[in-house]
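Chapter summary example.
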Amino acid sequence: MAPTNGSTLATESWDIADFVINKGHGVKGLSEMGLKSLPKQFHQPLEERFSEKKILDQVSIPLIDMSNWESPEVAKSICDAAENWGFFQIVNHGVPLEVLERVKEATHRFFALPAEEKRKYSKENSPTNNVRFGSSFVPHVEKALEWKDFLSLFYVSEEETSAFWPPVCKDEMLEYMKSSEVLIRRLMHVLVKGLNVKRIDEIREPMLLGSRRVNLNYYPMCPNPELTVGVGRHSDISTFTILLQDDIGGLHVRKDSGNDWIHVAPISGSLIINIGDALQIMSNGRYKSIEHCVIANGSQNRISVPLFVNPKPEAILCPFPEVLANGEKPLYKPVLCADYSRHFYTKAHDGKKTIDFAKIGDF
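The structure predicted for these 363 residues follows.
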């Protein structure tokens, strides 16, 4: 039995993990109980807590207007941002704004479902491994839980989408994926051309663009946001990620390798692009997969919808020969994408440590 509204959760008799994860209430269920204090299961270690003092004032990631796709200046801006920042925002990107609005509305609809409905998509109950509702990241290995609920949808086919994706959001998410396809291929073309890769052939396409996953993320109001995180420090393992966020804010990006962070302020109609580990490996470190996190919010609920553009699981990740053509030494060994992904999902978020799995020697 859950405690009554306003409880400080002092009692140890209530299994919070069971309520949040197994029963399907999520952290949204905790938030809606009007808790006065954050349960200790969500208290992050001191070194993982986020301080406003770490945020650089008046610094932002690059903003790129994609109106003229053919412009060499636009291509240079994209490659420069991938190389020096790893994150950038784009406007006039070609994905209809009404599609993005429907995606946000559908995300709210899914998380507004009763717990028993959402629980149908949990790890234990989902009819397919490609649809997963859950909380935090990998709860069974985390020392402290993250303040987030999510629905993860891995695209296999329209038939599986129709059969297994939640009816309240499947049409909108499929429309979003289809509407983003031109953007994905244009970005990929520009990025690989910047690496002197002339074309994406039938071998490289699965390596770069072989699969898609879309996540619906929900970050409810938190009673003690300074004690926890929405998402811990990590870099994505994708080729690149397209992120749609609402107007609340909360995403922060590490600047270089120091302890300074940049808030990615929401811009109406924009999408955020970030380079993933896979492209960092394929570019031999020229393009950067940057550490980022999401802070908790004490006064507002936040949503975000990342679309992960991933290699196929059976693809081999390694630096492009064109990148190494001038005698540059490879920094990364060939790794199977499925092995790299498995490594990522068997541990808690830990900054940039995942890429060590592919590094050669002491690089």
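To summarize the output: The first strand starts at residue 63 and ends at 65.
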